[in-house]
């Protein structure tokens, strides 16, 4: 099936995926192409990522996401911490690729999120709402196909 849920409303999409789930339970193979990567992440047992007609990755959704060695650590600072000073410091920590801020919320992109969290505790950073997550399938797709899509940026 090619883009099977395009133009479906929420109820129709849910019904479609219920039917697909029942077919999977009966050991039926379903092949579909989609740009709705959240659906592929949820429903697919195996994914093949193509770029310019060539396979760049294949495996379970988790296998595909694990190819991208990047994790996100997000938290909000307590009022006492100075954002700019902390951002400058965190940027020097091992494995940190990028630090972005929005008000008092920081997002740290790193190859080793455990190391970042340990450093936050060692530094006694007063934070709330700590969240650690890996890349989603869309981020993995963009990373894996980067340079293969033939898109020119002026």
Automatic annotation (TrEMBL):
The keyword ATP-binding applies. Keywords: Antibiotic resistance, ATP-binding, Nucleotide-binding, Transport. One of its GO terms (molecular function) is ATP binding. Gene3D superfamilies: P-loop containing nucleotide triphosphate hydrolases (3.40.50.300). It is found in: Cell membrane. It is a peripheral membrane protein. Its main location: membrane. Signal peptide: none annotated. The keyword Signal does not apply. GO terms for cellular component: plasma membrane. GO terms for biological process: response to antibiotic. PANTHER family: ABC TRANSPORTER ATP-BINDING PROTEIN. This is ABC-2 type transport system ATP-binding protein. It comes from Ferrithrix thermotolerans DSM 19514.
